[in-house]
Amino acid sequence: MKNPYRKLMMLGAAASLALVGACAPGGGGGGADEDTPEAAAFRFRQAVMRVAAGKMGPIGAMAREEVPVDEAVFAKNVNDLVAAAGMITEGFGADVSNAPAASAAMPEIWTNMDDFNERAANMLNAAQELAQVVEDGGFAAAQGLVQSTAGNCGACHRSYRERDE
Ligand code: HEC
Q1: Which ligand 1 atom is the nearest neighbour of the CA of 123?
Q2: How much is the pLDDT for 162?
Q3: Average pLDDT score over residue span 102-113
Q4: Is residue 104 in contact with ligand 1, taking CB distance under 6 Å?
Q5: How far, in Å, from the CA of 62 to the mean position of ligand 1?
């Protein structure tokens, strides 16, 4: 009744399926999951940018009076934005020429590194200034500064981030 050969076949099939599964994530060249310095840098800057956006959004919404003012939440978001802004340049150490295909970072970052770093520094300075104003005068004092702080995001993206099609 038992067919040892068939059992072997099934084991073989299961093993190949497991192999396919193991190869699927990160398979194919240039994936963001790849274990290269360039892919790691991409994941890092993407995380920093997502945090920056996750903080800038609620800061802007409160400044535009779309949500009720909460001094503690506002102050925390601004301080977190400062932390994120301080990490931007750390995500651009590895050359973009080998960056994963999903990256929107433009090659000009690495040929104009001084200018790029200056824009990152402007972002950090603006966020730090905002944080200082919040500390001294709270939300009311800082409200009018939020838009110009956020302007630093676009000032860098316009030159160094590929636009979505
Ligand atoms: C000094 C330049 C610079 C500054 C300042 C900057 N960004 Fe970026 N940002 C980039 C670049 C370059 C990319 C593309 C990175 C990539 O895809 O490799 C990017 C990508 C992003 C992304 C897409 C992340 C993803 O999921 O792929 C978001 C969102 C973002 N930035 C938000 C912000 C916000 C919000 C600010 C301001 C608080 C900001 N950025 C400030 C350069 C900058």
Answers
A1: 5
A2: 94
A3: 93
A4: yes
A5: 21
Length of the chain: 165
Residue type, 158: R
CB atoms within 10 A of CB 150: 20
The angle subtended at Cα 152 by Cα 147 and Cα 153, nearest 5°, is: 100
Is 94 in contact with 41 (CB distance < 8 Å)? yes
Task: Ligand 1, residue 50: give the atom nearest the CA.
Answer: 29
Return the best residue to mutate from 42, 49, 162 for the ligand 1 pocket (most ligand atoms within 8 A of CB). 49
Q: How many CA atoms lie less than 13 Å away from 84 in the CB half-sphere?
A: 20
Burial readout 34-47 (b: 16 or more C-beta within 10 A, e: otherwise): beeebbebbbbbbe
Expressed in angstroms and rounded, the spacing between residue 65 Cα and the centre of ligand 1 is 25
Is the pLDDT at 163 greater than 90? The verdict is no
